[in-house]
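Hey, quick one: can you model this chain's 3D structure?
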Amino acid sequence: MRHFERAIWVAVVGCVFSCFGACGSDDEGSSGGGSSAALASCNQFCDKSAGKSCQLVDAATCKQICSALMQSLDASCAAKQKAMYDCQLAQSDVCNTPACQTQTDEASACLSGG
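Sure thing. Here's the predicted structure for all 114 residues.
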């Protein structure tokens, strides 16, 4: 469950950064735009986690967070998010994904500017 919660917090933090970025700048140049492939993986994660005991938000809210997050990311960070979601989707239980720790750490670091 810890890994699922961390993945959701990665998405929520990204959404918060996205909101601040939208309010703070009119530039749409070098960063932003995200990735449709990353968005698709994130949305699949929302669907697969729906109804699970570790789910923190409903699937519709999860997909809204995905959309806001992916729109705010550059290509490199979107790729890291996609790698994390793809890894989690490949697990038998999206709520228990210790095999995805590296991808989760990289996705979190990317959102933190690292």
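One thing worth noting: The chain has a mean pLDDT of 78.
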